[in-house]
Amino acid sequence: MTRRVRPVVVRQRITERLERERARMESCPDEELLVSPVWRQGYLAGLRIARVIVREGGE
Question: Domain of life here (predicted)?
Fold first, then answer.
């Protein structure tokens, strides 16, 4: 038997996961991640865009 999850709940979970990843990436120093600041800014921008897409996907 499968359990149905409402799309609103799925969007909320994905949004929370994206927000946690964004916070984690912002808190780590560049030296620890071994990435350039430009790469980090691009990754964070991608996370923000993905969050907006997920939030508006069901409307």
Answer: Bacteria
